[in-house]
Each structure stands twice: as C-alpha cells, then as structure tokens.
Write a structure and sequence with these properties.
alpha+beta, 5-stranded antiparallel β-sheet, 4 helices, single chain
C-alpha cells in the first residue's frame, strides 16, 4: 500500500471513530461514501457466494471482502483496493469499514445509553 493511502486510511479510522466526519450510505447495501472538497472515498463490504473450500482453495470464512476507493474531484478512481491486498492492509480497510458501520448504526451511543439507564 502506498504511504499516502495508508496515512489516509489511518486518519479516516481515527476521525470516524471520533465522529468528526460523516459518512453517507449510498443506498447500495453495505457501501458508504465520504465527500471532500476535491474528492471522495468509498468503503464497501461485500459477501461472496459461499463455495466449497475444495473449489475455491481458500477458507470458507474468507467469503467476504472489504473494498476501498479514492476518487478525485472529477469522479475518476485514483486508488482502488480489494481483497487482493496484504493481510495488514486488509485489516486496515476492515477497521475503517467497521468504524463507519459503528458510527452509522450508532452502536456505541446505543450501548452507552442503555448502560446509563441500567446504572452501570
């Protein structure tokens, strides 16, 4: 992964977890977009068809992927990453997606509200 892409992904994970950026669902399932003045980023979670390990040659638990795309202001793709990246890079994209999903579903806020009502 290019250093600037890694830097961008790390910053997006941090800013998303802190709720200082607002992602918007695209209406295409598990796909979220964040717009900037001169571009945008897209993060996607995709389930793949479940096929036997003997057919795929990979573990059945690997039947999903996380995708990341960086677009310029004209909508052209500058960077696109999918399941064919290193394990470390994939984990970074997965962390970003999970932070976006958590923010979108307000998971932390829901738990905290329930804990407060329960006095714990």
């Amino acid at each position: 992964m290019e250093p600037n892409t890694r830097k961008l992904l790390s910053a997006l994970v941090e800013k998303t977890a802190a709720r200082t950026v607002t992602w918007v669902g695209t209406g295409k399932g598990d796909e979220y977009k964040l717009r900037f003045q001169n571009g945008s980023v897209l993060v996607v979670y995709k389930m793949q068809a479940a096929l036997p390990k003997a057919f795929l040659g990979v573990d059945i638990l690997e039947n999903f992927s996380y995708n990341f795309r960086l677009y310029n202001q004209d909508g052209s793709i500058i960077q696109s990453m999918d399941q064919f990246v290193s394990k470390e890079d994939r984990e970074l994209i997965e962390n970003l997606y999970k932070a976006v999903e958590n923010a979108d579903k307000k998971e932390d806020e829901t738990y905290n509200s329930i804990f407060k009502e329960l006095g714990i």
